[in-house]
Design brief:
- The complex is a heterotrimer of chains A (about 350), B (about 325) and C (about 270).
- With about 350 residues, chain A is α/β, with parallel strands linked by helices.
- Chain A has helices at about 45-55, 85-90, 105, 115-125, 130-145, 150, 160-175, 190-210, 220-225, 245-250, 255-260, and strands at about 5-15, 20-30, 35-40, 65-75, 75-80, 95-100, 180-185, 210-215, 230-235, 235-245, 310-315, 320.
- Chain B contains 13 helices and no strands.
- Chain B is globular, with a radius of gyration of 24 Å.
- The two termini of chain B are about 15 Å apart.
- In chain C, α1 crosses α2 and α2 (about 60-95) runs parallel beside α5.
- Chain C is built from 9 helices and no strands.
- The chains are: A alpha/beta (about 350), B mainly alpha (about 325), C mainly alpha (about 270).
- The interface of A and B includes residues 92, 106 and 109 of A.
Chain lengths: ~350, ~325, ~270
């Protein structure tokens, strides 16, 4: 099965007066149709830049320097998103690949009613007449579980609650039945109770429409419940990529391990100190030699600061980049293998 | 609608204050008002009649109320020289000034909106640099200077358009428009840079918002994004500025009417000062100020229409 | 030196300094009498003897331009100074004391703002009296409304900050607080506007004198020179263009310097 999206050696650098910012520095992954990939990492690790690079939303050269490829399968033909012109990309955006951003309030135009914002996208990518587009818009609002859609359609964004706004944003994204949805921190700006609803909604829509989903988040909990596979990003690179259960049960790369440990445990005693990862991510202007996590790693070896660890396979579906990975005892049912 | 009703008392208060000031302008002129207006050739009888009509022997507040009462009925007295009712003189001249203002605002917006959007979108581009440099020059040129320059180059040197003279609409539409081209241009070129800069700055801010990024992410073409999505939220400051610009226009229009010989309210105002036709002057000041207040009221209404966040109907 | 800096700052400042010097030193400069009419030289083109040429009554345009510019400076600086003091104080009082004081002051300001700027000025020129003081008073009044607004907004900003509350807690009298704590902070934004205000006032003076409502002839003002010579525009453009150029250069330079200062102060504030 040809993958829906095949990213190889993706690089996004920004040429700034202070030097070159290596926001995304060589990323590889593939995505099958209908699959959910989670991209996790701290702020500034490059996950948002990655998403915007795929959509071609970054300012053009010479400010932005790209390399590598991102082959997207559209209608049986795969083309490289990075090599497409603005005109070609406009065909892809909204129609084949859609995006949902973090803050629903600022994602919607404050002066246009909700229906108009959906219809705008519909009319751009289809031949629907005004009436038909309006009806379809109301259908979409229904699909995202907005009560009384016919009335709500005439509301303005500021009249809706945060959760409802995000549903509208999702409705806009789904308008033309895209094959891939990129959700950049879709629940971060929402209340915890609403977060679960939105994720549930995304899940069911994904199944309904057989849509692939790239879920970007800094919240491992969100990722655990939603994704088939997870890629952990650090300082512009993917440092570990695995099936979700493997990642959580047997993380290999030390950064992944640290992230998992940093999640506060409900069962821990009340005064247990929080595990934090000391230090801060490196500046993307001057990435350190060797493993980028080395300065903050508890298990650092002399090798780590001089040589960049290559991507090693722990199993067919788990890859990591670490000189001193976590060693897991082999479990008798053979489910988890020891990857040294 | 409710907003207007709520703001009504404040507006009425302002209008009342405006009327008092307009009245005071003339009432406090030193000397005997009647004598001043009628001039040296007046006979004692005519002066006495005028004094009675103006109520000059009554206390100040009574005079004010008398004047206000008449004004509300449209009676501003009669011209001391021609005997023509002041209101007639004003209504005669009003259409010309209105036409001038309307054409000027239209031209200003026709030029500044596209340029403002474009230079906001393509900052630091060629167009932006040229437009900004020109703006700085035009903004520093008072309308009458611009008018003089236009007259010199267009009318005298190139002889494309007449230098002065006004042809009313009733006579010939083409002639009327021709005689308005230079005056309107002189006024508009001064306002365009101001509107343009306000819009440009708001467009730059609006374009940085997330919903614009989303529109791009959904594949909408640039033109649609600029005109349908960015322009409306970015036009609030522009609307305010245009509202104030109308006020400035009234001042600038004075000089333009005088320079180009257009028989409008501005020209009438200047004449009335020279001819000591104080009743006329008073009436014009009142008219113009009231008009300005109403226009700013309109601006407030437009605000609410443009930005639904300002509406308070829904909870 | 980039082109932008040249036109943006160097030339304007140079012109302003030059113009100011000429205007102040006018009585001692070797200028001909601006009022002297040499009818033999009517509308003479600019040449060796008359650098700016002569106007329709044979008067030296150069001398008249210098004295006209003098009026422009006196009126614009004077009116802005008046507006600065009056408007600044009113705004300070309104922003500091709030309550009814603020309400009355701002209501009055709003009434003032309800009049299109020049209309009031034009009407008030109908009053008798010497032109220059009248102009300063009238334009100062009109300009003060903007100063009141700026002063009030900035007073509100500072009056709520902690060092003011600390001063109050120490029992400082209101007047002292206002003078010592708040006024120094107000100076920045007010001065920034003042420079642009001088440009606006210069435009207003030019407009009024063009309409013949400023200093009466034969005293020259840039505006009335343009106004009276417009009729001979075809034969003798120099009589109109030299005063026009002087006026334009002055307003342009004031605007540029004002904007430069505004940018500099804005940057400093945002860094804070």
């Amino acid at each position: 099965m040809r993958p829906l999206l095949e990213v190889a050696g993706l690089v996004t650098h920004f040429a700034t007066p202070r030097g070159v910012v290596r926001a995304v520095d060589g990323v590889d992954f593939t995505l099958q149709a209908g699959e959910t990939l989670g991209v996790v990492g701290e702020s500034g690790c490059g996950k948002s830049v990655l998403a915007r690079t795929l959509m071609g939303l970054l300012p053009r050269a010479p400010y932005t320097i790209n390399a590598g490829s991102a082959r997207f399968m559209q209608g049986g033909v795969d083309r490289d998103l990075l090599r497409m012109s603005e005109v070609q990309l406009r065909e892809v955006r909204g129609r084949s690949i859609a995006m949902v951003f973090q803050d629903p309030l600022t994602s919607l135009n404050p002066v246009l009613p909700v229906w108009r914002q959906i219809v705008q996208v519909l009319q751009q990518h289809s031949d629907l007449g005004r009436k038909a587009a309006q009806d379809r818009a109301i259908e979409l609002l229904e699909q995202v579980n907005i009560p009384a859609p016919r009335q709500r359609a005439h509301d303005y964004p500021h009249q809706l609650s945060g959760g409802m706004r995000q549903r509208v944003v999702i409705a806009i994204a789904l308008a033309c039945n895209p094959q891939l949805l990129i959700a950049d921190e879709p629940t971060t700006a929402l209340d915890v109770t609403v977060q679960a609803q939105i994720l549930e909604l995304l899940r069911s829509l994904q199944v309904q429409h057989r849509m692939a989903l790239i879920l970007i988040s800094h919240n491992l909990g969100v990722v655990a419940g939603m994704c088939d596979r997870v890629a952990v990003m650090y300082a512009g690179r993917i440092v570990e990529q695995a099936r979700v259960d493997a990642l959580f049960a047997t993380p290999r790369m030390r950064y992944t391990e640290a992230l998992l440990r940093a999640i506060p445990q409900l069962a821990a005693p009340s005064h247990a100190p929080l595990h934090v990862i000391g230090g801060a991510p490196p500046s993307l202007l001057a990435t350190p030699r060797g493993c980028r996590f080395a300065p903050r790693c508890q298990y650092v070896l002399p090798n780590c600061s001089s040589q960049e660890p290559p991507l090693t396979a722990a199993s067919e579906h788990q890859h990591y980049a670490c000189w001193n990975p976590v060693i897991h005892a082999q479990v008798s049912d053979g489910q988890v293998s020891d990857g040294r | 609608m409710r907003r207007i009703l709520r703001g009504l008392p404040a507006i009425i208060a302002v209008l009342a204050a405006v009327s008092m000031i307009s009245f005071a302008l003339v009432a406090f002129l030193p000397g005997d008002l009647a004598l001043l207006m009628l001039g040296d050739s007046a006979t004692p009888e005519t002066v006495a009649v005028a004094r009675r009509e103006l109520g000059l022997d009554r206390p100040l507040y009574a005079r004010y109320l008398l004047w206000l009462g008449n004004a509300l009925q449209g009676d501003f007295g009669n011209s001391a020289r021609s005997g023509q009712p002041v209101i007639d003189a004003i209504l005669e001249r009003l259409p010309v000034t209105l036409e001038l203002m309307l054409l000027t605002i239209t031209l200003s917006l026709l030029l500044s909106i596209p340029l403002g959007v474009w230079t906001g979108y393509r900052r630091e581009g060629m167009t932006d640099r040229v437009v900004l440099s020109l703006s700085m020059v035009f903004v520093s040129m008072p309308s009458f200077l611009m008018g003089v320059l236009l007259v010199y180059f267009v009318a005298l040197q190139l002889q494309w358009l007449p230098a002065t003279g006004f042809i009313p609409l009733s006579e010939s539409v083409v002639g009327n428009l021709q005689s308005m081209v230079l005056p309107v241009l002189a006024l508009a070129l001064h306002d365009v840079p101001v509107y343009l800069r306000v819009l440009r700055s708001d467009i730059i801010q609006t374009l940085q918002q997330n919903f614009i990024l989303l529109a791009r992410a959904m594949g909408l073409p640039t033109a649609k994004i600029l005109m349908r999505n960015a322009l409306r939220p970015a036009s609030l400051n522009l609307v305010t500025t245009v509202g104030l610009g109308v006020g400035r226009l009234l001042g600038g229009a004075l000089t333009i009417e005088v320079l180009f010989g257009l028989p409008g309210l501005g020209q009438l105002l200047i004449e009335s000062i020279y001819q000591k036709e104080y009743l006329v002057m008073q009436a014009i000041v009142l008219f113009v100020a009231v008009g300005f207040v109403l226009i700013n009221l309109l601006v407030d209404v437009l605000y609410v229409l443009l930005d639904p966040r300002l509406r308070e109907e829904h909870a | 030196m980039t082109l932008q800096r040249l036109f943006g700052l160097v030339l304007p400042v140079t012109w302003l300094l030059f113009a100011l010097t000429c205007v102040i030193a006018a009585p001692w400069l070797p200028l001909s009498d601006p009022l002297y009419q040499d009818l033999l030289k009517m509308l003479e083109k600019p040449g060796a003897a008359l650098w700016f040429g002569a106007d329709s009554l044979g008067r030296d345009v150069l001398a008249r331009s210098v004295y006209g510019l003098r009026v422009t400076f006196i009126v614009s600086v004077g009116s802005v100074a008046l507006g600065f003091v009056v408007g600044g104080s009113l705004g300070l009082l309104a922003g500091y004391f709030r309550g009814n004081v603020e309400r009355y002051i701002m209501a009055g300001n709003n009434v003032l703002l309800a009049f299109p700027p020049l209309i009031l000025a034009v009407a008030m020129m109908a009053y008798p009296g010497a032109a220059v003081p009248k102009l300063i008073l009238v334009l100062g009044l009109v300009v003060s409304s903007a100063f009141t607004r700026i002063s009030r907004v900035n007073t509100l900003r500072f009056a709520q900050q902690e060092f003011v509350m600390a001063a109050k807690a120490m029992g400082m009298r209101d007047l002292r607080i206002m003078l010592v704590e708040i006024v120094p902070n107000l100076l920045n934004p007010l001065l920034v506007f003042a420079l642009l205000g001088v440009a606006l006032a210069a435009v207003a003076e030019g407009t009024l004198s063009f309409l013949g409502l400023s200093v009466p002839p034969p005293t020259p003002t840039l505006g009335n020179m343009i106004g009276s010579e417009v009729s001979s525009l075809r034969e003798a453009p120099h009589a109109v263009f030299f005063p026009a150029a002087v006026l334009f250069l002055t307003i342009f330079s004031l605007n540029r310097v004002g904007e430069y200062i505004q940018r500099k102060l804005d940057v400093r504030e945002s860094a804070v």
